[in-house]
DNA sequence: AGCAAAGTTGCGCAACAGGCAAGTTTGGGA
DNA sequence: TCCCAAACTTGCCTGTTGCGCAACTTTGCT
């Protein structure tokens, strides 16, 4: 009768625990000075189990971002089908970020971590790329028939994610001068002119 | 007196040899069934030396793409300073791809490899990301003073590379129906409307 | 000719991904 | 309520990797 079984919940909890352990250790010792062993320990699980959940530390570290972005994707899905893809994406982003965006402390912490440790940039890019293809599928659904090769869907998704990524990185360099969402909204508006 | 010393040339040759060895073996056995050892052997060099040139197989595999893209960046640099960044980028791409783009057999081979082995997608994304930041620097030079936070430069570079990447991937799925550059040009035109 | 800088190599080690099989937990019938 | 199959965890193990270090070789400059 539970909406989702115990099994599922336990899995999610373990994944989350691993993620949080990774983040905690990375913040404390620096992301390049931690081992998978240490993360598993910190999460109270065997090293082998870590491998069942994540392919490597970076994936564990950015799991939170992926979750956040999946939440954004859900908002996109919830937008009225009548909206154009780009409109739906920006509207969903507005909902997602405008209110409490900058306030998630974990999100900010991860951001700062990336800023201070350029070696993490690769993993960040990877995370955005993952979401890009998930979003492309959603966009494609809105373009049934109008996009024979599927270029447009992928183009829109890629551009959207690229703008969010660039905005994030710029904001991390100038966090005091502007809010993330202000920056992102403006960038989206400018870049999106091709899709309206 | 030589324009470039023997030292430099030898290094370039070794790097190229490693790259070609990696590509050859990947094509023959599949990219996930080859070891760094094997690549170094094939290139007639020690495993340790491989590490002096590339951080991992993927980097070796995509070295050719990076070279290609750097050539494109050179074309960008050569465009008149009076052109807007986006105009310079697209014009350079036109020069680069329009003529012989699809004809470089290595380039096509790598493309097919990525298409058949999704595990390589990560490395491909990484390669484009690398070029993105190199290009951003070039674009920034054209926006002296007009781009206080540096957003615009990064935005333009990111969008440009995203379009090329998406176009490539779409083209790889439909190579018969259209030429790469036709597809990319159209995508650039559409997406670039925000930057004109 | 000769020396300093750059490049190569072998050795060694900590770390890691992931196959396999034995144990443990969960959930859906009967 | 009980039971079993499927799902999950864990330990063990192997092949691979990235990189520091120190010895050796090659290159370039004078």
Short description:
With 196 residues, chain A is mainly alpha-helical. In chain A, 72% of the residues lie in helices and 0% in strands. The A-B interface holds A 121-122, 125-126, 129, 149-152, 154-155, 158-159, 162-163, 165-167, 169-170, 173-174, 177-178, 183, 187, 190-195 and B 121-122, 125-126, 129, 149-152, 154-155, 158-159, 162-163, 165-167, 169-170, 173-174, 177-178, 183, 187, 190-195.
Provide the fold topology:
The structure is a homodimer of 196-residue chains.
Chain A (H helix, E strand, L loop, with lengths): L5 H24 L6 H7 L4 H7 L3 H5 L1 H16 L6 H14 L6 H12 L4 H22 L8 H23 L6 H12 L5
The first copy, chain A, binds a DNA duplex (30 and 30 nucleotides) through helix 1 and helix 3.
Report on this model:
The structure is a homodimer of 196-residue chains. With 196 residues, the first copy, chain A, is an all-alpha fold. Chain A folds into two domains: 52 residues, Orthogonal Bundle (Arc Repressor Mutant, subunit A); 134 residues, Tetracycline Repressor, domain 2. In chain A, 72% of the residues lie in helices and 0% in strands. The first copy, chain A, is built from ten helices and no strands. Chain A starts with 5 loop residues before the first helix and ends in a 5-residue tail after the last helix. The mean pLDDT of chain A is 94. The interface between A and B is medium-sized, with 32 and 32 residues. Chain A binds a DNA duplex (30 and 30 nucleotides) through helix 1 and helix 3. Chains A, B: This is TetR family transcriptional regulator. Chains A, B: Keywords: DNA-binding, Transcription, Transcription regulation.
């Amino acid at each position: 009768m539970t909406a989702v079984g115990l099994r599922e919940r336990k899995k999610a909890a373990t994944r989350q625990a691993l993620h949080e352990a990774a983040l905690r250790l990375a913040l404390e010792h620096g992301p390049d000075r931690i081992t998978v062993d240490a993360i598993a320990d910190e999460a109270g699980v065997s090293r082998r189990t870590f491998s069942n959940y994540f392919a490597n530390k970076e994936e564990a570290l950015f799991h939170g971002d992926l979750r956040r972005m999946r939440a954004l994707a859900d908002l996109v899905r919830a937008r009225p089908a009548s909206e154009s893809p780009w409109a739906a994406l920006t509207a969903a982003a507005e909902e997602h970020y405008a209110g409490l965006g900058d306030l998630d402390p974990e999100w900010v912490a991860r951001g700062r971590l990336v800023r201070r440790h350029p070696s993490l940039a690769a993993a960040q890019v990877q995370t955005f790329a993952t979401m890009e293809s998930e979003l492309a599928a959603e966009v494609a659904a809105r373009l049934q028939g109008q996009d024979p090769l599927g270029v447009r869907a992928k183009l829109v998704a890629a551009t959207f994610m690229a703008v969010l990524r660039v905005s994030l990185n710029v904001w991390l360099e100038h966090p005091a001068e502007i809010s993330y969402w202000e920056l992102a909204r403006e960038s989206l508006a400018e870049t999106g002119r091709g899709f309206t």
